[in-house]
Write a structure and sequence with these properties.
Layout (H helix, E strand, L loop, with lengths): L1 E4 L6 E4 L2 E4 L2 E4 L4 H6 L8 E8 L3 E7 L6 E7 L1 E8 L10 E7 L5 E4 L3 E7 L3 E8 L8 E3 L23 H4 L12
Antiparallel strand pairs: 1-2, 2-10, 3-4, 5-12, 6-11, 6-13, 7-10, 7-12, 8-9, 8-11
Length: about 180
């Protein structure tokens, strides 16, 4: 496995070694000792799986308490995965990283605690699987507006079509008004 820091060093892209032959492929998606060597020594306690259609945008989500680190990968399709640093004391506060994750490239993205996360589905459908470091706590979940101009995420939207959003994401707050981490 290769662990590649992004422009926000705490956010790490993981490129697994994939063994392919005429039968298909094999890869390790998680191995504790290798992840610890790569700077990710957290304990994962829950795994989630979502399926979304093309044009769906989920996020930008985080939990203000019961904070969750996330290890994200795609098992079907392709997404543009986005992470925003929402730690006020961080030198990269307000910066974002976007990476294409797909079932073809097999890349994963480590989203540390203290970051907002979202993704946009670029393929006809996508299935996203992610491990988390704490349990889902809906009472602590928050959402930042996906198109907040202060953040300036360059989403690869499909033409002029607006993304498909949940009611929760439509009600997201701008970064300047959101409850954030110190």
């Amino acid at each position: 496995m290769e662990f590649v820091p992004t422009k926000i060093p705490d956010v790490i892209q993981i490129k697994p070694k994939v063994f392919e032959d005429s039968r298909g492929f094999f890869m390790e998606t998680y191995r504790g000792d290798r992840f610890a060597e790569g700077g990710i020594a957290q304990n994962f306690i829950q795994e989630n799986h979502s399926r979304s259609q093309k044009g769906v945008l989920r996020g930008l989500h985080y939990q203000i308490r019961n904070t969750q680190g996330k290890l994200v990968r795609v098992v079907l399709g392709e997404i543009f995965d986005v992470v925003v640093d929402i730690r006020r004391s961080s030198p990269t506060f307000g910066m974002w990283v976007g990476e294409v994750l797909s079932s073809e490239n097999h890349y994963q993205l480590w989203v540390p605690e203290g970051f907002a996360h979202g993704f946009y589905v670029m393929s006809e459908a996508a299935e996203v699987v992610y491990k988390v470091t704490d349990y889902y706590a809906p009472e602590w979940e928050r959402s930042i507006l996906w198109d907040d101009p202060e953040i300036g995420i360059e989403w690869p939207l499909d033409g002029d079509a607006a993304p498909i959003l949940s009611q929760k994401d439509l009600m997201g707050k701008p970064l300047a008004e959101a409850e954030l981490f110190e």
